[in-house]
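for the writeup, i need someone to sanity check this before i put it in the appendix. the sequnce is what the collaborator sent (i think, or maybe the updated version? ugh). structure was predicted straight from it, no edits. if anything looks off just tell me and ill rerun, i have time this weekend
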Amino acid sequence: MAQRSNLVGPDGVTPLRALMTKEIAAPALTSQRSILSGNPAAGLEPGRLASILHGAEDGNIIDYLELAEQMEERDLHYLSVLGTRKRQVSQLEITVEAASDAPIDQAKAETIRGWLKRDTLEAELFDILDAVGKGFSFAEIVWETPGAGPWLPRQLIWRDPRWFEFDRIDGATPLLRGQGAPAPLPPYKFVAHVHPAKSGLAVRGGLAKAVAWAFLFKSFSLKDWVEFADVYGFPIRVGKYQPGATPDDINTLLRAVSQISRDAAAVVPSSMEMEFTTSAAASGPDTFRQLCEYLDRQISKAVLGQTATTDSEGGGLGGSGREHNDVRGDIERADAKLLAATLNRDLVKPVIDLNYGAGGPYPAIRIGRPEAKDLDAFLSAVERFVAMGGTVAKSVVRDEIGLPDPAPGEQLLVPAGSANLPAPGNGPGSAPPAPGAPFPRALAPAGPLEPLKSPYGPATAATAPAGGGDDIDLAVQALVDDGWEPVMAPILDPLRAALETAASFEEAVAVLTPALARMKPDALARNLLAAGFAVRAAAAVDQAGTTDG
């Protein structure tokens, strides 16, 4: 591990490591970071909502953030679809890609992989995705360094977005509220996630801003619907009293009429009369229901991009529903990429800088569902490529099909008919044989490697093939009989030595490649050159003799 860098806090003096293990954004009653909240949703009407949204755009975001929180608490549909979108991303598979195959880059990636194996990570990511609704979120990083181990985040603590604000000049630089003026965030202490539903400032990019008007109108409709049901849910009771009735008689009748709605019974004098009437407006609930359902569909579109996965009735998704689900998948991938970019910037980089020294390259987190792979097509392509003379590393194939390298001693699956063959580095007797040991019987050559022998015997005209041999035949015979074995020794000896160390066919193939590089064909080349010269000289002499004759 490289030497750790000497980092300092925002004041340029305080060592940053002194802040690593502390909570600097915890709630406090004596500062602006209070857990107490207002109630802007109570009595909300269009003028008040417009004022809240305009104030947020001017930098006064507290009322807007409190309203966004209450929208999730009061609107069950909004809570459901927003929670679905956040959980869908927080539960996705997370992988880590090393910057290169260099040992140091592989070590960096392994450090990140080890940290990601935390039981609380999914819940922490869900909190970070609070930015989907509000436009931004902050999670404080509390570091730890057990013993002499690496610096790693111990907790990612969700912090109330009301405790932060943005620079009034650029509208993008986050500042932490405290007892004094808002201060810049210390480096390596926060995961600051911005998740815009639209382009623009973070305070205008949350889904809550777009859904707020639907929330308001739906609240009106639900309130009216409840009042309607209260008025028209029971028939109207009309009490009639006779002329000359006393005030006590009238009060008695009124109490009886009032109690009927709850007690369904009343006692009145025989001289009094009661009548139940049905209002023509009793069929009116459909109006409120249709408006609420319409607003729910609009909220589904804003949050999930479609309606079929939440509002379909009775028959499944169908053809168009699958298209809607594809839209939801597109949103999932976009959310995952945004989250991965934030984690790479605010988590991966600090972990590497604190443990390996500042500067890259850095490993990269990837979030998403694994893409479906056509393994048959891949393996067929590899097979064809190898048959054409190409080479492919086994690790590449294993990674592509998702199989780890077997550990020493593990039982291996082998092709049919080769179950009794030992595999290199595995099983009993896995150690390669000592130099000079014979091949296993199944892999041994048919016989010992014998020196090449001439099919014609000594290079003489008497023993030449029928029809006589020419000068080339005689030169080859002489080379074989007089010096073939010493010439071929520098070529064959490395091959023999390599094959003697192989314990399997695969190992034999593997060791032959470097053995070929160790071969020394110089002597053979000199002899072949001499033989060729001799043949040419003999042919020239024969031609001259024929001419003279």
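Confidence is low (pLDDT under 50) at residues 314-319, 423-430, 435-467. The longest strand covers residues 136-144.
thx in advance!!
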